[in-house]
Amino acid sequence: MPTIHNNENDVPVGLQHRNLKMNRQAPYAGLNDSNRAEKRQRLIKKETFVKKEPVASTTSTSTFARRPALGDVTNRINVKKSSTMAMHQKKTTTIKRSFTVYEPKVPTTPVVNTFGSLDLSSPMSVAKAVDLETIKEEESVSHDIDSEDKYEASACWQYAEDLTKYHLETEKQRMASPSYMARQSDINSKMRTILIDWLVDVHCKYDLHPQTLHIAIHLIDRHLEKHLSVPRQRLQLVGITALFIAAKYEEIYPPEAKDFIRITDNAYTREELFAMEVDLLSSVAYRVTFPTAYQFMKRFLKASRTCDDRVEHFAHFIIDRSLQEYKMIKYAPSRIAAAAVHIARTQMGDTPAWNSTMEHHSSYSESNLHDCVEDLKEILWNAQNGIGKTSKLTAVRRKFEKERFMAVATLKLAFADAQ
């Protein structure tokens, strides 16, 4: 028979804790449903909840909380963003705009504007004035040949026209006298022509810049003008020294002194070359920059806006040929260049041969060029037909018969029938 335990302590050990746990989880055991609900409500009302207040720090008087454990590692106090927003808010100001009404001032007396001799008080006069202004603006635009080079770093397009005007003013001050050869004691114009013909061959042999040749010829004439007793035996030394100076001034890699000595078949020494260099530079006061026909020719060709390369080569042929002629010294380099461009455009069929833009940049009208044009045509005609003493000197002709210059020296002259 099962054993009956009347004492609580007589319960087996394995069941004591289970019964105790069950009694704790069921405090309302033994009550009926109505009594259990009423008892539950009374117990809920008696329960109180205690809210823990934060313990104030005894080591700091600050009202701010310290940094969190995994927050900022410094001892800086963490301030809530909400507490600093007011400190960083920018003040906004409103701009009050005031509007001022400007009233035009009406003159008390009528003003009559004049444009030259035109009275602008009438509508017809105003229309004429506007037309004249438009014409002037169109002419200024058509005469502008430099603005197209504004993206070229080496063009100096803003100063090109001013430089041309300066050269036109100074060229006459640096021209040699057209009568100096008559005062020479031992040399004549024929010797000068032979010397220049030989220098053209030397110039081509060393492949020098065209400007170098023109500066050299100018140095020769200026020196012979100052030294009227130059012996003919030293005329060749004057020529190679002038080319030596011009090459050092114009070329990037000029020939050396020994090259110019060797080209004379060692007729002179280096010491003589250097001594003549000092004399030549003294004759021109050490001013080697001369306005030449070549640089004027380039400027006038640009003003002509020609697209035919033969025009440039033929004009170049003319100005190089004019260097040999002593009679052409009486003309300024700019006039020779303008006349050469005129003849070249006529030769190649560019019409008109001379226009307003070319006249503007050269300061020469077509009538001003007539005498120089006729002299140059005569020189070309005689050279092509073997007439005259200088026709046998063919260095310039051989130079421009090459394909490099489109063989312009072999062209039949367009004005041959007029001679």
What does this structure look like?
This protein is an all-alpha fold and 419 residues long. Among the domains are: 181-283, Orthogonal Bundle (Cyclin A, domain 1); 293-418, Cyclin-like (Cyclin A, domain 1, Orthogonal Bundle). 50% of the residues lie in helices and 1% in strands. The chain has helices at residues 13-25, 33-46, 81-88, 123-143, 160-170, 189-205, 210-226, 235-250, 257-263, 270-283, 293-304, 309-322, 333-347, 356-362, 370-385, 395-400; strands spanning 114-115, 118-119. A two-stranded antiparallel ribbon has the order 1-2. The longest helix has 21 residues, at 123-143. It is extended, with a radius of gyration of 53 Å. The N and C termini lie far apart (169 Å). Pfam families: Cyclin_C, Cyclin_N. This is Cyclin N-terminal domain-containing protein. Residues 197-282, 295-378 form the Cyclin-like domain. Keywords: Cell cycle, Cell division, Cyclin. One of its GO terms (molecular function) is cyclin-dependent protein serine/threonine kinase regulator activity.
Question: Outline of this structure?
Answer:
The protein is built from 16 helices and 2 strands.
- Mean pLDDT equals 80
- Structural class, by secondary structure, is mainly alpha
Helix share bin: 40-55%
| N-C termini distance | 169 Å
Oligomeric state of the chains? single chain
| Strand neighbour order, sheet with most strands | 1-2
- N-to-C series of helices and strands: HHHEEHHHHHHHHHHHHH
- The tally of helices reads 16
| Total strand segments | 2
CATH topology of the domain at 293-418: Cyclin A, domain 1
Q: Please describe the biggest sheet, giving its number of strands, its sense, and whether it closes into a barrel.
A: 2 strands, antiparallel
List low-confidence stretches.
1-6, 17-28, 56-64, 135-139
CATH arch. level architecture of the domain at 293-418? Orthogonal Bundle
Domain Cyclin-like: 197-282, 295-378
GO biological process, one term: mitotic cell cycle phase transition
Keywords: Cell cycle, Cell division, Cyclin
Organism: Pythium oligandrum (Mycoparasitic fungus)
